[in-house]
Amino acid sequence: MRIAIQGELGSFSHEAALDLEPQATIVPCPQSAEVFKLLENAEVCAAVIPIENSLAGSVVEHFDLLFQCQVQIERESLLRIRHNLIGVPGSTVEGIRRVLSHPVALAQCRRFFGQHPKMSPTPFYDTAGSVKHVVEQGHSEAAAIASEQAALTYGGQILASGIEDNAANYTRFFLIRRSDRPGPGGDKVSIAFTVENRPGTLVAALQVFADYDTNLCKVESRPVHGQPWQYVFYLDYQVSDPAATGAALEQLRRRCLLVKELGRYPAARPLS
Q1: pTM: predicted TM-score of the whole model, two decimal places
Q2: Which of 178, 205, 226 is the last residue of a domain?
Q3: 183 domain residue, yes or no
Q4: What is the average pLDDT across 190-217?
Q5: Annotated catalytic residue 171
Q6: Structural domain containing residue 243
Q7: Which of 173, 193, 209, 233 is catalytic?
Q8: 38 Cβ partners below 8 Å, 6+ apart?
Q9: Is the pLDDT of residue 243 over 80?
Q10: Residue 193 known to be catalytic
């Protein structure tokens, strides 16, 4: 099974993909748009994309691509994000002077940098890519912040593990497939919808979910490209009665200009 991800091998997306499909062959892509293109063109079986981090928030580009492309969400997973300081074999924490990683990862390890003032955080395009670069360069005074999977992939040495500031650091991932494949269904639904730009239309749309006793998990708005001050609303909700899913959507379509169902899937196991 070929699964596309955005980023280098060894990234957290790589780790999430293997968590969802342990036997998968991972196809790395430099850009998210390429991930969706490969999937729509049937060059891969599926894709795994991050959609939301518990600290950094939503990956807004992926909301846009889910709306624009002919794909559907099949599963979701929650991955605990553990940041590690990774250097070349034989290097030491005391000898590190420059630390490369994605800006978000660097920002999530501020306490560690405060404890090691001789280290200079250096932004890089990708967490796993920073490990690849450090190992290829072979300099003992340089290190990277990334996943354990990145260290395994590129032969780096973990010098310090769990260096993130907040232990409650999770990323939610979607496994997506082409929309011409039947989904498994489940108790969670993701949709996108638009309403007329006049008073009360959004309230009326959301009232549908209260009427059917559904649990709204997330609401996100994104601008409509080419239509200033117009918005697409993204919504996740859970249902206790599967029959209510179709009924709620039918009512919603009567109150909206457009409703696109992005997927029905089993909700990921709650975090303990």
Answers
A1: 0.91
A2: 178
A3: no
A4: 92
A5: yes
A6: 188-265
A7: 173
A8: 4, 27, 29, 44, 47
A9: no
A10: no
